[in-house]
């Protein structure tokens, strides 16, 4: 096998995430994939992957081979397009990651339209309650809220998004409304176990004043839809992004709390590995996503217009 073929094989292996899926994609048996990987590692003289019975993960050498190899393949693809005098049509697999709630509510409907516009592009949507490692797990792009990417990623804002505190009128009639952040400690609060943020710790700011409050409550979840349902049912005060809370604020099923205080923003970003040349399929996805959210980028955060 030549070097470019090996690079393509290794990139496919990381995109699929395991030997069996790669074998199915290539139309060969899993032992053939394992044998080819072993031959590649023997040729390079280094171990590219840590392998267990349940998963594979990149070694430092494997990550270098994947990242730099992808750059080489993209440069070769760009060179061939230039020489041929034509732009490659978008086709192939694009792997996308998004958060559970936002992915279901906004990204899945967008991908329905994308699939009709680009029938030769296959999209795999992975929904999770925490950010994935795009490079190591072979994703082409991800939708992230309020998280800054590392140096290997390019970020493009899709929409501003403000976090807010809210509660059902039934809860406020029974328990009253907090006048300042410290009074949150006397209330029943609903919160999400997500990412690596300190559990049950809320940060609020008003001008130069900053308050960090440890809140408590009987209900918590890693799923925003569950937390929202509990808030609507009057179980407590919830911190939620405006994209999720806005419809209920407009209808009156939720009321905003401590409006003179702000919480850390959760702006919505499209992130993808930084490369000199994106593949045609990834470029098509990036451009389509930016166009889809174009109208939202000019709406100020906190206007509850979702």
Account of the 3D structure:
With 306 residues, the chain is an alpha/beta fold. It is built from 11 helices and 14 strands. The chain has helices spanning 3-16, 19-26, 30-44, 60-84, 100-117, 134-137, 169-175, 224-232, 242-251, 280-292, 294-297; strands spanning 49-51, 56-58, 92-99, 121-128, 141-145, 153-159, 163-167, 189-192, 201-206, 209-214, 220-221, 237-241, 255-257, 268-273. Strands 4-3-5-14-6 form a 5-stranded mixed β-sheet. Helix 1 crosses helix 4 (60-84) and helix 2 packs across helix 3 (30-44). The longest helix is centred in the N-terminal third of the chain and has 25 residues, at 60-84. The mean pLDDT is 86.
Beta-strand content estimate: 15-25%
Number of helices: 11
Q: Major beta sheet, specifics? A: 5 strands, mixed
What CATH first level of the largest domain would be assigned?
Answer: Alpha Beta
Distance between the termini: 52 Å
Give the strand line-up of the largest sheet: 4-3-5-14-6
**Residue ranges: pLDDT <50 for 5 or more in a row?**
none
> Helix fraction?
40-55%
Please trace the helix and strand order, writing H or E for each element.
HHHEEHEHEHEEEHEEEEHEHEEHH
Rounded average pLDDT: 86
Supply the CATH superfamily name of the largest domain.
Answer: Periplasmic binding protein-like II
Q: How many structural domains can be distinguished in the coordinates?
A: 3
Gross CATH architecture of the largest domain: 3-Layer(aba) Sandwich
- Give the tally of β-strands: 14
Radius of gyration: 23 Å
What is the name of the CATH topology of the largest domain? D-Maltodextrin-Binding Protein, domain 2
What would you call the shape? elongated
